[in-house]
Amino acid sequence: MRIPARLRPLIEYGVITEVVRPLLSGKEAQVYLVESGGELRAAKVYKSTQERSFRHRSSYTEGRKVRNSRDRRAMGKNSRYGREQQEAAWNTAEADMIRKLHRAGVRVPKPYDFVEGVLVMECIQGPDGGVAPRISDCPFTREEGIEVCDQIIRQIVKMLCAGVVHADMSVFNVLMADDGPVVIDFPQSVSAASNPHARKILLRDVANITDALRFGRAPQALRYGYEMWDLYENGELDENSVLTGKYDVRQHQVDPDILMLEMQQVEEDEALAEMDDEDFDY
Q: Which residues belong to the signal peptide in this entry (predicted)?
């Protein structure tokens, strides 16, 4: 295939030896299947600001530290140099985050290189030996889906223990590897301690997963986000913390958006039940 311009320097440097084919295209980047280090790997090429569809980026960058004082001032003034540095920092964030989470034992692709704004990482294999599919494309049985949901919730707990909230968690950003789910896409991830929106973002992340992998379970029994944040805030959360999903929202501060989602889920369940009754009404 024709070599993308952004990958040519990596071939010149010997970081990759061949571009096999495009793999995935998302809001933030284009991912290619490449040969590197004698094996197939994934090369993530970040899109420019004009090409991206990710919105409200400022909510995700709050709390991120910029060590260079000149860069920090330029970013604050939104000068041309400042915008260039913001772009570089946004692209670098994922490489830094994947390294951190990989060290913490979170199931993420193993990072290898970050060169010229391109992240080269492990290519996750699926159950059939090919490239792993997104969870959204997997036809799970109810039992399988519930188990996968529990496994993803456990990875969210591990991330929170490492002080990280994914901030774009969904079944589109989790791959189904041959040995279980692997979380991907971290450029927008936030610090649980420093970002003032971290709690709200975590609740939304968890709700995205439990909504997609509910399989008829009552939404009120899947309030893992509230539960894990309370444990985190009280310094009691660890990788093995037992979560029940049960949380009395009447006694705590709740997020209206999450409650609205739960109400919609209940209405959908009732509508489906009515449809089933009509199907058997002779």
A: none
For the sheet containing 111-115, what is the strand order? 18-25, 29-36, 39-46, 118-122, 111-115
Please give the model's pTM, rounded to 2 decimal places: 0.81
Are 190 and 60 contacting, i.e. CB atoms less than 8 angstroms apart? yes
Q: What is the pLDDT of residues 221-244, one digit of tens each?
A: 999 999 999 999 999 999 999 999
- CB neighbours (10 Å) of residue 84? 13
CA-derived radius of gyration, the chain: 21
Domain at 135-279, CATH from 1.10.510.10, 1.10.8.50, 1.10.357.140, 1.10.10.60: 1.10.510.10
- Structure confidence by residue, pLDDT tens digits, 15-49: 999 999 999 887 778 999 999 999 999 999 988 76
Q: Is the dihedral of CA 56, 117, 156, 239 positive or negative?
A: negative
Q: Is the dihedral of CA 229, 226, 223, 206 positive or negative?
A: negative
CATH architecture of 16-122: 2-Layer Sandwich (3.30)
